[in-house]
Amino acid sequence: QVQLVESGGGSVQAGGSLRLSCAASGYTYRGNSMAWFRQAPGKEREGVAAIYTHGGRYYADSVKGRFTISRDYDKGTVYLQMNSLKPEDTGMYSCAADGPPYGGAWYRFDDYNYRGQGTQVTVSS
């Protein structure tokens, strides 16, 4: 069983930046898809970004131009660079791996076979 572990969360003021990382514990994951999700208190979990081995990427409209997803295949790690953070970006950020193929519903958390516990991001105004 692949266990994903996220890191890099924290508290930042609006306009600041954070970089999240996610890697499989004890295993170098190099599968097709990896993605980031977030869930704010009282709201449903939403897809933030996804990346595929051929280079394809998806982003939620709310983060386009501010967030960048990338992967290091040697390390089996996926990153989420978050710039120009806003208070509405606050939430628990989780990564996931081995999900729908490119062109599918990348934003469905339950359709990923491997999912992490999350790291908290808090943006203050």
Structural class: mainly beta
Largest beta-sheet details = 7 strands, mixed
Q: Approximately how much helix is present in the residues?
A: under 10%
End-to-end separation: 40 Å
The Cα radius of gyration reads 13 Å
Mean pLDDT: 95
What global shape is seen? Answer: globular
Q: Can you walk through the features of this model?
A:
With 125 residues, this protein is mostly beta strands. The protein is 0% helix and 47% strand. The protein contains no helices and 11 strands. The chain has strands at residues 4-7, 10-13, 18-24, 33-39, 46-52, 57-59, 67-72, 77-82, 91-97, 114-115, 119-124. The strands form 2 sheets. Strands 2, 4, 5, 6, 9, 10 and 11 form a 7-stranded mixed β-sheet that branches. The protein has a 4-stranded antiparallel β-sheet with strand order 1-3-8-7, with no helix packed on it. β7 (67-72) and β8 (77-82) form a beta hairpin. The radius of gyration is 13 Å and the shape is globular. The model has no long low-confidence stretch (mean pLDDT 95).
What's the short story on this structure?
The protein is mainly beta and 125 residues long.
Could you list some keywords that capture this structure?
0% helix; 47% strand; 11 strands; 7-stranded mixed β-sheet; 125 residues; mainly beta
